[in-house]
């Protein structure tokens, strides 16, 4: 981190007037806080939410909290399937002629971690990887166009998790040569759903690195980040919710501070000033560049994931 003190969006972000951002999973938790931080600095922010009703309610709440009316716009953005992700992206393209910040913040609280009986892929993987891939790919032409404008600063931020580097009990290395890692039950592992979650987060980091390689001829910066331990609603899915709620509320950061790493990645001038350093970076809170899992840096693994994903999307439009 290049800050000599604790990062503070109110102080460390420049005026973002004229810039347009889209943040997914933004009606609650870190996504909501990210939208708030960006909007308070002048950015026009589209608040992506699977539920149109919840998205509008979040915008109303932001207005009550001091965000200027019209600064944040609710956008129904369901990336739970490739088709719905494409629809959301196409809806955005009808509204805007520029996009400076694409923040993929996945709200985990309502996402199913069980295998879908039809696709044999979890909603978690569909959202974290396939939907993210499709939304990003559909918006890439606009992101690239914006990056060519004078004084542009286009960034793509994927919020993943430090858990992506954990080995899987039955599958110590995931190569993504086929779709199988996303369909594997991991029944032999101690916590099968957690292994499926790890695969989806590893895919997010790997995708971010692959995307940066493909955008090497542009000025676009792709960053994946770990938000840290944040008190969100995700812990309520575990056993003993009262205990986990006590632990989370006592020891974890609140969403406002938990969003600092994503906000820094999305809008801090330090990132653009040291662009070469941050291209394809993986950030621990707040703003600390560390090396992600070795598999995510392997260009063959990146290419395999890209090709496997493209093939799946062609077969399941």
UniProtKB/TrEMBL annotation:
Q: Name one Pfam family in it.
A: adh_short
A GO molecular function annotation here is: oxidoreductase activity
Q: Which InterPro entries does this UniProt record tie to the protein?
A: NAD(P)-bd_dom_sf (IPR036291), SDR_fam (IPR002347)
Q: Which organism is it from?
A: Psilocybe cyanescens
Q: What protein am I looking at?
A: NAD(P)-binding protein
- Entry's transmembrane regions: none
Write out the entry's keywords from A to Z.
Oxidoreductase
